[in-house]
Amino acid sequence: MKFPWSHTTIVDMIKTDQKVEEKCHQVTTDIIAGKLNVAEFVEELGPALTHTDASVRAKGTTLLSNVLKDLPPDALQATQVELLCTFYIDRSLDHHTVTPMVLAGIEALTHMTNFPDGAAVRLLRALFERVPCQSQKKPERTLYFQMMLNLAERKVDELKAWGVDFVYGVIGAIEGERDPRNLLYLFERMPSFIRTFPMYHLAEEMFETFACYFPIDFHPNPNDPVAITRDALAEHLANCLCATPEMAEFAVPLLMEKLDSSLIMAKLDSLSLLRRCLELLEVAKLEEHHDELWTALKKELLPAGGTSAAEKELVEATFAAVQALAKNASTDEPSAKALLDKILLSVMGGLTDASSKQFEMSLRVELSCAQGSVYCALYVIEKLIPMLLAQLNVDGHVETRVANVLVDALQRLCAVCAHWYCIDRLDPALVGQMHKKLIEVVLQEADGSEQKRSALLALAAVPEMVTSENRYVVYSAMVKILLTATEQPSKTIDAAQECLFSFAIRYQQEVKTVVLEKLITHDYAKAETSLVQLVFKTLGKFILYHGYMDKMVKFFLSKIFDPDNERLAIIAMDTLTDVVENGNSSQLGKAELYEQYKLLDRCFEYANDKLSSDCLHAMAQLIGAVVKQLPVEEQHQLILKRLPALRLQQRADLYLASGLLAYLDQSVPLVDHFENLVTDLSKLALETDEERVRDVCNRLLCSLFNRMPNDEHHRGVLKRLLKMIREELKKHNHQAVVILSWIGKGLIARGHSEAGEIVDDIADLLDHPTLGHIAALAFEILSIEFPQLHLPLLRNLFKQKLFVWVMKKLEQKVEQYAETHLKALAFVLAATPHTVLKMNLSKVGPVLLKCLAQTDDKTILEALTIVLRFTREQDPFVQDHLQTLIPLLLKLTLHQSSMKIRIGALECLLYVCKYPTFLLLPFKQSVLLALQKPLDDRKRLVRNAAVTTRLQWFVVGSAEDTKTDK
């Protein structure tokens, strides 16, 4: 195909045709299809490319470059790319108005698959010599950088052979760049470039090219749709400055200079850069800077810094830098010793006086050093322990506060020792002295003291330090603390437990025979429930420790099946349930409790109606936790074995059934039992007077109907049950409403077709004179989530579906809503996702305002929570209804039956202040007057909220407020 423009018209068309660039898409298509050769295209463009008018040449070059950009990478052969490279090299001498199009074309060529060898050097040499990068505008500089670095990635060997001239050209191109987006691009790509190409004698010049930007001082444009952050620039710049060890050498003097800055951000960047340098450089390269570096770091730490978040961040960064410095030095022991000596000498004054304000900072400096390496840890620990012990062992009284600080310091040294596993490499005499002191503290100090807590944590860190005769002292202390836990601070209990678990791993037999034996043989019959719960929870954790399971499971089983103490049995079952559910070990439930210890078999043999509901409930929870861990096939076998024999009219059997069925996998079939189960459960729920039994029945019905197969038989079972419940409703049976709501909940969650009918039935009851109140509460059951309720089938958006059903049923009666309607709606709206409410606010809003005018606390609180969200978002609906909302909120600030309502109303009034001033001014005086009463509320939290809100209303309309508004 011949290019459709003749030599005589091409220039005229470029000058006059506004859509000439669009015609090039056809050219691109023809080149891809092989109908047109790119050389022919260039030839046809010849008159435009060689025209005497620079603007015509620019447009001609633009056409060619646009075609190249649209071509696939493999569309051109090597000879064609060679031809185009030659053309663009010639064009690089053209007028500066043509240069942007030249750069666009070259950049497009760099992506071509068949880019010829040798062309990269020729192209880049021409650009470096003829087209100064920093003389171009920002888009052209971007193209320049992209082209240059694309070629650097693709033609490594060729450009390496070019040598120093290439590196010099790159430096010249990027030097002085100021655009943040271009800089980010360079900072991201240049580290790889620097590591790939030898810098020759230009390493320092390359470093200085980036050093001028350090530290980054950049404030992003708030209107930038793709904003660049200062942190991103700083991080990538640091990558450039530390791209190689050679570059990192130059970075050390730079960062030391910037550490003297008064700007915290500059110091943080310098410390971050220092840590990067320390990871790259050998100690020999840094040794000469140790004095200056430590002096600069010490300046940030001593005396203690400020308390602002930025100052705290700076202190933490400095400690991290100290650790990195020690780690770097420790690769050469003489250098490490010299540095550590220097640091220790600097902080010695603070360390030798634990009452000094400098003690904590000095100790942290040494601990940071110790975290650098094993060598540093050994050095620090062996130097500090004598100093600390000397202050603890002085003749005469040591102030309690000082002693607490010193023992805590010993504990922190032990933690470092545990981190490096270096207790065996310390001087045995020194370890013995520390061990002696810690045991002395455990023996002599009160159980709740801070020193004893620290000593136990220290021993927990390095249990191997404790000699056999002294371990029994520690065991006695732990047992005593645990058995008097109600009298101990929680921190002391935590320390005793940590110490116990640590010793249990290392000294298994001793802990079994000494500690656990005392704990499991202790008489808990008269002990406080909270104490028993804590000790049992501690013992429960041992089930998951290797070698302790048999002993601990047998202990708990002995308590569970002890008929003489139901309280302990319940606590034991709760503990075991918690271990099964949270122990991260499905084997515990399946292999051990179910198969080895026959837990479920024993429960079914032991359960009887003489046991209390609390005990049976705890047993059901434990059975459910174990059943949940079983494979589907074993669950199926268990159901076949146990379910037929259960008589749900008996209380014990009901609870056992709830344990079996509560967490059953949805694939386990219940077809043979379903009708009998729902019939018995619904009958029992209607007849029993025991609330907990009714609750168990209702939850089981909910779960069963949620997993019910959707076939004719089961739909028939549901219809017969619903018919029976409707008969009960005619008798004004409150419990029938509750059963209906639980069945509806199970069906709604799975998206069953009958669910809407049940919602309609309950909604119709809202007008009932005797069942209206319980029908409103039924909507709470339908709406809220119950953590222990197992619903195997959950359909997406079922909450939205409930919202649609209810609103459709009740929206026609907005003006006639009774209190029961509003209460029901409040529960449904509270469970509906916020985005759905927002989309339907024209319907929902009036309902919420009516709810706020009710007297029922639950209704008000649910509505107030939603209104508060919309007010915080400054929703237009709230703005349009301020005249109604503000008086309602002011009334609620005096709602005496609920502190939450009073605080919520005040918070809502506070966010109302965010609306435009001209809307608020008419209400200002009445609000200020009404808010005087909450200032004297009997509850401190309400008074605080009233002060904040009234103060905000007081400044409404002030000069500053008006200025902000504008």
Question: What can be said about this structure in brief?
Answer:
Helices cover 72% and strands 0% of the residues.
What are the salient characteristics of this protein?
mainly alpha; 966 residues; single chain; 52 helices; disordered C terminus; 72% helix
Q: What percent of the residues sit in helical stretches (DSSP H or I)?
A: over 70%
Average residue-wise pLDDT: 90
Strand content: under 5%
Largest sheet: none
General shape: globular
Task: Let me know the number of strands.
Answer: 0
User: How large is the count of helical segments?
Assistant: 52
What class would the helix/strand composition place it in?
mainly alpha
What does this entry look like structurally?
The chain has 966 residues and is mainly alpha-helical. The protein has 52 helices and no strands. Helix 35 (651-661) packs parallel to helix 37 (691-707). The longest helix has 21 residues, at 309-329. Residues 962-966 have low confidence and may be disordered.
Write the layout of secondary structure elements.
Layout: H1 10-16, H2 20-33, H3 38-49, H4 54-70, H5 78-91, H6 99-109, H7 119-130, H8 138-154, H9 156-162, H10 164-174, H11 180-196, H12 203-211, H13 230-241, H14 245-258, H15 264-280, H16 283-286, H17 290-301, H18 309-329, H19 333-351, H20 359-370, H21 374-392, H22 400-420, H23 428-444, H24 450-461, H25 468-483, H26 490-506, H27 508-521, H28 529-541, H29 549-560, H30 566-582, H31 586-596, H32 599-606, H33 613-629, H34 632-642, H35 651-661, H36 671-687, H37 691-707, H38 712-730, H39 734-750, H40 755-764, H41 772-783, H42 798-810, H43 819-831, H44 834-839, H45 841-852, H46 857-872, H47 876-880, H48 882-892, H49 899-912, H50 917-930, H51 940-954, H52 959-965
